[in-house]
Amino acid sequence: QVQLVESGGGLVQAGGSLRLSCAASGRTFSSYGMGWFRQASGKEREFVAAISRSGINTYYADSVKGRFTISRDNAKNTVYLQMNSLKPEDTAVYYCAARPGSSSTRSREYDYWGQGTQVAVSS
How far apart are alpha carbons 91 and 5 in whole angstroms? Predict the structure, then answer.
């Protein structure tokens, strides 16, 4: 069982930056692939970024590539999402997710989810 708690969301102007954190419980964090997803009001949840267990391999949605960076610190049981050059269309609730083994870009393949953190980008 893994419990995930996101933090770092907030209101920022377009062009600004935020760093989201996701703290995981348990002693086997390094055995989980991790992902970030987001859901805007009235829209379906979509993939943002994912990272392998070791942190070597990362994957991004085209819409955030070059602006967002996913990373993890297995010693701290934490995964991060650095978001730069934010746009109003990045406004959403951001969720982190975990699955045993390799990471995935598909939300249905994740077993554990955090409660989400709101990101709002003003124009």
Answer: 19
The confidence score (pLDDT) of residue 91 equals: 98
pLDDT of residue 4: 97
**SS3 of 89, please?**
helix
CA distance 55 to 29: 12
Output helix, strand, coil percentages for the chain, rounded to the nearest 5.
5, 50, 45
Rounded Cα distance between 56 and 118, Å, is: 28
Q: What is the mean pLDDT of residues 33-60?
A: 98
For CA atoms 62, 66, 68, 73, give the dihedral sign. positive
- 82 HSE (CA, 13 A, CB side): 7
Structure tokens, 88: 């109003």
